[in-house]
Structure formats: C-alpha cells, structure tokens
Design a protein that fits this description.
Two copies of one chain form a homodimer. Chain A is α/β, with parallel strands linked by helices. Chain A folds into two domains: about 90 residues, Leucine Dehydrogenase, chain A, domain 1 (Rossmann fold); about 130 residues, Rossmann fold, CATH 3.40.50. Chain A contains ten helices and ten strands. Chain A has a five-stranded parallel beta sheet with strand order 5-4-6-7-10. In chain A, strands 2-1-3 form a three-stranded parallel beta sheet, sandwiched between helices. A two-stranded antiparallel ribbon of chain A has the order 8-9. In chain A, strand 8 and strand 9 form a beta hairpin. In chain A, helix 1 packs parallel to helix 10, helix 6 packs across helix 7 and helix 6 packs across helix 10. Chains A and B meet through helix 5, helix 7 and strand 5 of A and helix 5, helix 7 and strand 5 of B. Strand 5 of chain A pairs antiparallel with strand 5 of chain B.
C-alpha cells in the first residue's frame, strides 16, 4: 500500500484549520509563524514557499524575513532576539542551511525554545529524548503521524533507521523506541560505519531511510511485507524536466514497492508531513499547549 | 579479560588529583561539588558517601546538604537556587530518587545546566544527542571511559543496549552511535517490548546490560568473544552478609564470563566509573571547560 503523505497532510491541515477557526471565533488572533530566510538557495526558497502556503491553508499568519547571504551573524541574532520578544509571533524558524560564515548552532540556540517550532534547540531535543512534552522536530514527528494515521503496528517490531543525522535519524530512533504508540519498537541505527548493512535491513519490519543517498535501499535489502519510509529528497539532474531535476528518495522505489506492506513515495510521502508537523508545532505554540 | 573498573577509576582519580594540585598551586581554589540528599534511603546514603569520599581522593571540596524526607518542594528548589548562584560551588547533584511528593523533573530542571554535573538537565541531554560539548551523564560517560581505557574497538561493531532508561540506556546508545571513538557502533536498543531478544543479543559484539534485572543475560545470549558491560546493581537478599544483601548485576557472570573477550564484574566494574565521571564533570565545571 502506498502511504499517501499528501492526503494525510491535507487532512491534518484541515483539522488544524478547524481549530484555528474556532480560536479565531472565540476572539483570539490566529497562530503566527515567522520564517527567516538567508540568501537565495533554490531548495530553501522552495521549502519556505511551501511553509508559507501551508500557513495560508491552516489559517495562520505568516511573516517572511529575508536577509542577503552576506548578512552578519550579529544582525541575524538581533532579528531572532526581536522575534523571541514579539508577543505577536508564536513560533519561528530559521531556514537551514545558513552561509558558512554564520554559526548555525549559535543561531539555533539563540531561538527561545518556547518558540522553537522546528524543535532543533537543545532543550527540545533533550526533552524529546527524556520523553517530556516538547516541540518534536518536524520530520520525525511527521513520520510518527504517518505511522499513526495508517495504524501501522510498531510495538515490538524490528525497526532499522538508516542515517544518524540530528534532524532525522537520531530523533526518529528516539521516538520509535519510546514507550507508547507509535513506539515500543526495537530500533537499530545504521550509518556509514555499519557492517552487514544489507543483512540488518533484511531483518527489519520497518525501515526508515534517511541517508540522502538516492536509491540506496534496494529490493534485496527489504523483507517481504516490510514497511518502508523514505526520507530522502536528493535533487537528481533530470533534463527532461522544466526544473532540471527530479526529487529522488533513498529507496529504489520501483523495485522495492512490490515487496512492501506500506511504502512512502518521493515526493508525496514524508515531505508534506514535515511541513504539517511545523504547522502542528505552531498551533501548539499559539495555544501554549507545551510551554 | 575482566575489566577492572576499580583500578581504572583509581587511575583516573589520580589523574584528576594531579590536575587539581596544579590548579591549586597556581593559586585557584579546588573544585567544589555539592550534593543534596533527601531522606535516609540506604542506597542513596551509600552512593552519596562514596561520592564524598571520591571528592576527598580527587582533592575537591565537597558539601553535603541534607533534608528530611518530608521536605517541601519549594524548600528544595530554594536550596538549588542558592547553589546555582553560589560562585563557590562549581557543580552539584540532587541524589535521586526523591520522595513521591516532589516533582523530580522540576527539581532537575531547576539546576543551572552549567552546574548540572550529573548531566540530567534537558539542555545537557539535548547537547549530548546533538554531539555538542556538555556534561554527559555519569554512567554512560563512565562506560565510554572503560571502553577507551581498555582500547576496545567499537567502530562498526554491533552493539546491543538492554534497557531504555533516561540515565543509562538511551544516553549510552546515543554515545555509542556518534562519530568518533569510542562510538561509530551499530546500536540496537532492546527493552520490555522487544521480541527475539536472545537472537538479537547473540549477534552483538558488545552488550550493555542496563535493565536492573538480576542475572538476566545468560550464557546462551552471548556470542563467543563478545564484550559485556554490566550496569545492573540490584540489591539481592543475602543473609550470609553483614549488610544483608549482595549487589547483583544483570549478567549471569559465572556462566557468561568464560565466553567474553571482556566483561565487567558487579561490583567493581561500571559502578566506580560512574562516580569518577561525576568527578570528571566537576573538574570540567571548575575549569569552565564546557560552559
């Protein structure tokens, strides 16, 4: 079965919209998400545009703050400081990556964790690991929502996470091993130093591929009936397309899909859920549901 | 080979002592660790006494603040606040567990993360997960030191962590999967919901047992030549002893040891290292090596 991330994302956006409508009709202002975008990277422009569009769909206010790529770090930090102190803004993100002359970690830590709807601040990362209420980072949270909406069993399942990044691999592993549903899985994290990776994958009931390596997961690595979640979104050159590229996942979809009980396509799988998680976090921020 | 945690701990305490002596001879005051102890639980009393003794061995100043078990949460929080603001104290711990009427998490989060030498504050947990400098929680850090001192290869090794607690299982899994040494292992975290646990253990090059379930790991679960780290310290009744109990690990030591390339005994394995990690964190706090 193909997991339709776009459809689930649309459903959740409608649910968020309904909550926003009810907030607004009770006299409150709509949730407000701000985004800081530095420079003009094509991918970042696209992501931010999608986030702003999602805000509209959810009935949120959105603000885009643009800086040129030669912006001084101090100027960025001062913009963050203003947003931290602006009661009219519930949450905000700084679109990554940032230019090399800017200390990304310093920027992330400058964000008030109570407005850190990307869930990248150490306090939110730590609280997630401990199992406390927090802003969970968008992609892992989106994956959990997909598993939940499709009622995919995770309890006691062997789950293999490919990749140990701070924004996907490590947090999704943490969430999948927590008590409760979706969770309670036996999680193995694989990475560049892993040996016998194919054998390990073949034992998995659930594979989360988050390596950023196009078509890395091949059919011989997947057990019959497995669930495959593809987080990869690499831009691969494709001159037949107007954009000049094709978004390509970490999974060799055409050959893997026939073996799976569930699989996410790229695009249209995890991607739309990432943005919906951000919307969900912004709603949680606006309603002070966490902090 | 038996991993002699006591010997390694003694060596590291001497190393710390040498650094403290050089600090003091350069005119600085020695590192100062404070401990808050609530009530009179036998285990807690013993742990705190060991920590104070270790402070003496390292040349640290130590302060013990005692409260009765009916202490109000607010009184405890106010003591923490004072320690946070006391420039004469480099780091402090609140010995856990606390009585039920006190919110343990609230107490942990009240500690200034820059003095949180137990590494339990969400900021330290989050920074550890991200891979940033931080106070690493004592037991996981102690395990890493043992692996390092015995030059045990972890790169690409299959590592199985039994238990997903916030103070051992999850953080040691995080450390073992990070890039670098000791790390770069392929880590699987097993817990109460795990199926085929014996099969999973049998594939492990390194087993970290942190369940608190005496003699849970039996010889049939361990591959020949495996490294077994036993974090369990359950007090099992033993009327032949003056204390009335025997500290018992999670590993059926007598039957497992002959199969292992390395194994930690209980007591005298991980336990002494936990306290040494605390000493190390206190030295790091005193020298502002992290924050």
């Amino acid at each position: 079965m193909i997991i339709d991330g776009k459809k689930i994302a649309d459903t959740i956006k409608q649910e968020i919209r309904a909550k926003v409508d009810s907030l607004v009709s009770s006299g409150q202002r709509p949730p407000h998400l701000a985004a800081i975008l530095v420079g003009h990277d094509g991918g970042s422009e696209t992501y931010v545009a999608h986030k702003i569009r999602a805000c509209e769909q959810c009935g949120f206010i959105s603000t885009l703050l643009r800086f040129e790529s030669d912006v001084e770090e101090s100027e960025l930090l001062s913009a963050i400081h203003k947003l931290n102190n602006d009661d009219g803004v519930d949450g905000f993100i700084v679109q990554l990556p940032l230019p090399r002359h800017i200390n990304e970690q310093k920027v992330i830590e400058a964000i008030d964790y109570r407005k850190d709807v990307d869930g990248f601040h150490p306090i939110n990362v730590g609280r997630m690991s401990i199992g406390l209420p927090c802003f969970r980072s968008a992609t892992p949270a989106g994956i959990m929502m997909l598993l939940e909406r499709y009622e995919i069993e995770t309890n006691g399942k062997r789950c293999v996470v490919l990749g140990r990044s701070n924004i996907v691999g490590k947090p999704v592993a943490t969430l999948l091993m927590q008590k409760g549903y979706p969770g309670n899985a036996t999680v193995t994290v694989c990475h560049s130093a892993t040996k016998d990776l194919k054998d390990i994958c073949r034992e998995a009931d659930i594979i989360i591929a988050a390596l950023g390596s196009p078509k890395f997961v091949t059919a011989d690595m997947v057990k019959d009936g497995a669930v495959v979640i593809d987080v990869g979104t690499t831009r691969v050159k494709d001159e037949t397309r107007k954009s000049g590229f094709k978004l390509t996942g970490d999974v060799d979809y055409d050959n893997v899909a026939p073996k799976c009980s569930y699989i996410t396509p790229v695009p249209g799988g995890v991607g739309p859920m990432t943005i919906v998680s951000l919307m969900n976090n912004t709603l949680l921020a606006a309603t002070h549901a966490i902090y």
